Queue: 2 jobs
Job 1
Amino acid sequence: MKTQLTHIPGKPRIKAPGAPEVRVKILNAESVAEIQKQMVRFPIRRSAILPAITVANRQLGYLSAEVYEEISEITEIPVSQIAEAASFYTLFPKKPRGKYLIMVCDNISCALCGADAMIKYLEMKLGIKRGETTEDNLFTLGTAECLAGCSAAPMMQVNDRYYENLTPAKVDKLLEELKSKE
Amino acid sequence: MAEYKLLFRNIDEPDQHTVKGYESRRGYIAWRKALTSMKPDEVIAEVKTSGLRGRGGAGFPTGVKWSFVPKDSPKPRYLICNADESEPGTCKDRVLLERDPHAMIEGMAIGSFAIGSHLAFVYIRGEFDYSIAIVEKAVEDAYKAGHLGKNIYGTGYDLEMIVYTGGGAYICGEETALINSLAGERGMSSMRPPFPAIEGLYGCPTIVNNVETLACVPHIINRGGEWHKKIGTEKSPGTKLFSLTGHVNRPGNYEVELGTPLSYLINELGGGIKDGNKLKAVIPGGASCPFLSADQVDTPLDFEAMAEAGSMLGSGAVIVMDERTDIAWVTYKLIKFFKHESCGKCTPCREGTKWLTMMIERILRGDGKEGDLDKIADVCDNILGRTICPLGDAAVMPIISVLQKFRGDFEKHIKGKKKIEMEQFSFA
Ligand SMILES: Cc1cc2nc3c(=O)[nH]c(=O)nc-3n(C[C@H](O)[C@H](O)[C@H](O)COP(=O)(O)O)c2cc1C
Ligand code: SF4
Ligand code: FES
């Protein structure tokens, strides 16, 4: 068996002598409670890693070494295992991003329906290139691989929402809406 | 053979995603029937009779797969529904997740009972925030209505179900990578054997099935395997969901009887090619499948006919390209995807997809050299069949097909120095 129990319930975790105390400062009480809930849902605790980093990412918008430490502190899962898993996935940015993460699909079905032009249009509207964030920290622009919205191409995801059958007019309207909320 | 709505029959009912709405249309009758009046072996036998084949891409017979779970194993068994839908061009599972989630849950329950599992997972891709919310609510409601949980229907059978969300990685749709991801490791594929049915999640027997496959199961239990076997063709029975995308007038998800001609899907259901243009090429089963040329458009949509035509039915993502399409540019879009999604575990796939991407990019920039296409074919040949999981093959099979069928599109760039302004690579 490859996977093993990372924590034997009832036994306190043994800390290396002199290892520094980690205080949970970045994650808020709500996230901590949610992570604690996830910890006990699975046959082995290690399965809670992905749910835990998902919770952290939802609160913070990106992950960092400090966050891995805190998750480790809460879950008693070795920090190396957390970092190992987190670094594999694209859904968790590893550096701060704008308030709205705009991910435009540029895979095949969307590309056939003008995704590249849509990305150029967004670059022009936002005054940034893909991979960059606007100066007001409102928008980060990126490209995504197929998001399973192919029959309504071109499409994009902005934070947790899909926007499909994009046209320049639709993009204009959405950007106006998001800006006016500030 | 034509459109046939079985899984899509109720998706336009506004309350179909609720437990009440689903129950009102004969929902959960099959689960009750299986649990209260059938033995696990009888369920497996019925699914075997139905001829149902996996809808996740490989088309493996579902009943046969279930029968691989060792009967005498003292270990717990797990059933996982693969809702990671990320094969480019595929968007059909999402429709089921959002509009008829209980069909999948009922199929999972029946499948779990058949293999003796008391814990089932739905592994959904993390980008599907909306679908995830709907499925989570559906599972919660199924518990409340007594279809899941302890002592279901008074039979003493317990079944727990967990919705697990992924982290955005195509490879996690591959079953061994999915299992590793669910176990908290990096989502990388493992060598088979051992097959998951023998040694899967947490080292225990595990069955991974696609959303659409599982959604077929309640119909089979309700109406019998013989009934299902009569739909479609002899070797590919049943209906299939197809995601029709690209240069068509009415892109969308359609359900047809297996064996329906590809041209029926494109022309009758999809309204033909956009702007009155002519057809140039079709990928019939998602980005992993070889291209078909326009003269193959009457090929029946079933596993055998597609294999005979040199391609695959795959996940049912029909990507249509009109005469103006530069196939070299399409090939670049595909290979850069596989390069991005390679998990990096084996060298031919990790390095090969990178070199292929760089070479094809160079050709598109107008810097192609004589002999480049042979070199590309050589790299493909060195990946094919030499990798741990099928992603390596998936990356090169489309390229091998375009080098045969649409070589001219590449030569225009190499000989004619035709240039395309290349975009930057995707950033991760
Ligand atoms: C690279 C790769 C990606 C895959 N992605 C998916 C996917 O997104 N959804 C899916 O159901 N199957 C996917 N599969 C197929 C699964 O490995 C597995 O065969 C399938 O889920 C089994 O279900 P089925 O027997 O019901 O088809 C993928 C396979 C490979 C090699
Ligand atoms: S073929 Fe590619 S994706 Fe599959 S295990 Fe090898 S490197 Fe990973
Ligand atoms: S190709 Fe863009 S969503 Fe599938």
Job 2
Amino acid sequence: MSRYARGRGMAAAWYGIAKTATIDRAGSWVELDDGGTAKVLTGVTEIGEGILTVLAQVAAEELGIRPEQVTIGDNDTSRSPEAAHAGATRQTYMIGNSVALACRNARERLDAEIADHWGVDINLIEAFNGEIWARGTNKRMTMEEAVHICKSRGVVPVGSGSFTAHGTGLDPVNGTGAPWQVYVFGAQVAEVEVDTVTGEVQVLGMWAVHDVGRTINPRGVEGQIEGAIVQGLGQALMEDYQTEKGHTTTPGFSKYILPTALDIPQINSRLVEDRDPKSPLGAKGIGEPALVPTAPAIINAIYDAIGVRITSLPATPEKVLAGLAAKKAASIAAE
Amino acid sequence: MFTYDSYHLPRTLREALELAATLPADGKVIAGGTDIVPYAREGRGGDVHFPVLLDVSKVAEFQGYAIENGRARLNAALPYQAFLEDPVLRENLPCMPGCAIWFADDQIREQATLAGNLVNASPAGDGAPPMMALNAEVELARLSGGEVTTRRLPLGEFITGPGRTVLEPGELVTAVICDALPGYGGSFQKVGQRRSLVISRVCAAALVKLDPTRHVFEDVRLALGGIAPVPLRLHDIEEMLRGKKITRRLVAEASVIPADRVASRTRVEYRRHVVRGFVEAAIEDALVACGAPVPSDRDREEAHA
Amino acid sequence: MPDHVMNLTVNGRKVKRPLGENYRLLDFLREELHLTGAKEGCGAGECGTCSVFVDGKLVKSCLMPTLKADGATIETVEGLAPLDSLTEVQRAFHKTGASQCGYCIPGMVMAATAALRENPEADFEEIKERLGGNICRCTGYAKIFEAVEIARDVIAGRLPQTALEPDAAAESFIGASVRRIDAPSKVTGRLKYAGDMIMPDMLHMQVLRSPHAHARIVSIDTSEAEALEGVACVITAADVPGEDGFGVFVHDQPIMARGKVRHVGEAVAAVSAESVEIARRALGLIKVEYEELPAVFDPEEAMRPGAPVIHDYAPDNLVKHIPIRKGDVEAGFAEADLIVENTYSTQQIEHAYLEPEAGLAYVDPDGVVTIHSPSQNITHHRHMLAKIINRPINKVRFIMSPVGGGFGGKEDMIYQGMLALAAMKSGRPVRLVFTREESIIASAKRHPARITYRMGLKSDGRITAVSFRMISDGGAYGMSTEGVMRKAAILAFGPYEVPNLKVDTYGIYTNNTPSGAFRSFGAMQTQFATESHLDLCAEKLGLDPFEIRRRNMMKIGSTTHTGQMLETCSMEEVLRVAEEFCRWERGAPTSRGATRSDLGGPDTRKPCTLGARFKMPEAEESKQEVA
Ligand SMILES: Cc1cc2nc3c(=O)[nH]c(=O)nc-3n(C[C@H](O)[C@H](O)[C@H](O)COP(=O)(O)OP(=O)(O)OC[C@H]3O[C@@H](n4cnc5c(N)ncnc54)[C@H](O)[C@@H]3O)c2cc1C
């Protein structure tokens, strides 16, 4: 037998978006500001996932300005509206949609003034990338001018938005209920190489396919998938918080082992866009679901490579070798 | 928390030895600090306070290395990165680049010294096995009656157990002196839980020299780490191979033997299995480094039949 | 020693400053020079958030005694580029989206800079090795590597400077890879996380933690600690003015241990002092008398009658049981051609965000108790804290400081309450920065799970029935356990339509480190079992893994395990794309790896063998050759 054995495995997964088995809600305030810029206030934002940028993109798109012209305020329970927590893969879905609604609200104010100023029907007004115009006419100006005109007419173009996701509680006896209004689906494939001398598993490739509803920022989504896969890989192969009589034996990063730059696969992602019909943006989410299929895909790939079924995570080199030894013993016994 | 009252950075050996002579019992010699500083953390040493720290990393006599009469003198402040980056060291110590690349990371290697690694005497330390294979001696110096006196000990006698050496109060390691073996093929095997910043579960170092026919082992050096309280040199297996015609089967046979030497308290079965594969791989890789062809899967199968 | 004057050149400027209590170079840079781009992710040289150049060599400044660097030339992330400009490496990080939470990023930018300084022609493998000392928990490293390769090629002139520019705007900003708006602040190290913030007159908090897993607190004597010079106040549960208790679902956790401790590392008292060192010394002067209680560390033991009770309100140690039932399971099994049973287990996992917990609290001039912290749930924290400190809700203010990674681990209010109490008691701003070790023992983990699985299938692969029981160690406090059990149960059987099923998930109290919210909230554990189990069944039935899933997958109109009708469903499309995308070779999962023809494509990496920088190209070639 060759020292190195390769194999592939796959796994699929599903996930619900936003808070579970309850109504979820998020609020935002928006102001189209001087210079054709904008302020967005909402109660919760960035934990690294890129939501600030997503919100800036959403606000820019809805307001007709550019993302870099959007300022997102601090998350402050005394200065911004409630948007609940940063979790449950709810950021793009809940806060993104609430910002979209707030922007539409602000635009209604602005558009009404500009339509009146131009003497055109409000439904003809469109704006993008710092410019506003009336469709089918030669009326056009910058957003900076538009905000100035709106304010000179005595109106500050502000808006607010509240977005709701309708989940219902579960029946306490049989669990019946509609916990989320939107689900996502995904599948991942892993290719591994197992070193039969050391029991080490290297993941060489991962293919991730996820339904995200509608992609707001492709690189951002990829970043979420890549990060989730490496966390899933850590759980599949090395991470293990251990205690002995309640005292941890993995108290620091020399004992609690995390994947490094040398432990990660090439990650290939592809997105499926099945838009959510129940929300203004049509986007769903990716943060958590991308982690779910990783470990089983890797474990299934290890089985493909060496015929050892790991049922208890993580698949440490020691467990892999013990599995190989057990398999050998079983095949000798069978002879 | 890591705290200290006074910190000395002597520039000469004499100064350093004077300070060492008066170092209080709870004072400490420090070189790269990569063992000492992270020890002062919860779950390890907790809050550790040193009344005096004696930093030997700037001592002039401890810098650099010299190669003379087939021996390399590796001065005490030499950091691991030198084994990777210095072409002379790479050529003369052929098992060390592999050891160094597996050792911690580029940044730790800029600080971490070989001397500190050997004094620390961790059973999982990576420096000891290749140094055992290179017949290393540790040179120690102290002041006695105002004079610098030195003694030299083989590495196997210097390290007496996990975290234990024969280093005495007032003594400093001045250098590690080992064989310079240009023309040898060297290799280093290591397994831990990942591939960077990884502590050895098992490691193995090998050095091989071919005779002029290139078919016979002229010399073989083998050592293991991580499997016993102290590093192990495999003299009997070296003896078994030396002067023999190189065949895969011979290498495979030789590698079965040392599994019995695993004397760790944990992961014994695991280590026994790895040791066997590592001895074989270490010799094979060292042969490849001498220019031998890479064995194919078929060779392996035949050898293990 | 504190008066020793350090002479250094830092980012091109001469610096002459007293050493103070800054024992490590990292402390000196951060506390004395306010260069907070270097961070303390672990304090043990294991993560690289503190990387700086000392005399041209990149080192981990948490491991360097400050005096070792006396006289040295230091370059930190703040000094890489003049203000208002970025280096190629920084621009490339901005371009590719290489920063997420940003906490590892200053160190990562330094490592990338060092890699390209050491070898401007470093190839992909060598770049990875040279970044091997820097941990990133968010990005999976992919975009970081991409950035370093772009920067290398721009510096070498192989790529034009425009390669670092943003992509041109298309017709819409939705669907465009707009560069992250927070990236410049992260790649330059300018962004201030809670642990980087300072206020005039600020105190430093340290926390006394329980050495016992389960013990009654007989007495706490803080008098000696309070008397120590430099100590402003000591707080314990006795200082809580309101209704003490927090948690995501049940409010079962006091701000500090009240009457008893339930896990090792639980906060018992906290000292606020003029310096961290004084505060730590004061911790040693607090006398706590404990009476140890029988403890339980295994959830199944904790479920047995007579087991030690951890919370009075839950005499059976049950945090939450979630049942789900659909159809008739017995009939479903009776109908099956094949029944497969197995057990699975998953481990406790640490979030390991690179930013350990940190916060800064003060009472503002209007009497508003204000807390800056990387909290993932400021709304709920405000509700709970208002009750705990007995103030009107508008007199409590939470500000979410930049979060250096959360993954669910920063949803629990495990330290903000102590900061609030100390700020109220001392009348001064108080800062607390966890060490890595403290973060590990005091914060929640991913729930470990033991799963018993039984699945019945027809010989064509259709699932007729499943039963599933999961027992999960919730640890000493409820935190998110209830929600995790719920989500685990709802999603347990994956995206497959199963006519008859029975699920039970149990979250159990023990005296272990609490388990809580962690990215995927229980779904990972249950679906790991499901997806492993499906492959087992597929092997027995001789079915391809994609095929067995396709035969059972949910579709539009399917009824979920909880009886919800799906109005949209992309599962079929996802499977189709995945199979094609990875060039899958069909066949039953019979460990046929050795014979597969779809392995080793251009979309995989090479196995990592170390030593890219000194391997001769011939060595690589000769590896291919068969002797
Ligand atoms: C993140 C990380 C990764 C690591 N990875 C590895 C690894 O892969 N493999 C490995 O083997 N080790 C590893 N280590 C451990 C450590 O880096 C090594 O043991 C290192 O070689 C110690 O050298 P130092 O100069 O830093 O020693 P120091 O910490 O300065 O000292 C270590 C001991 O040696 C003594 N000492 C040092 N020099 C002298 C002298 N001249 N005379 C007398 N006594 C002296 C000190 O008093 C102390 O007892 C790692 C450490 C860290 C923090």
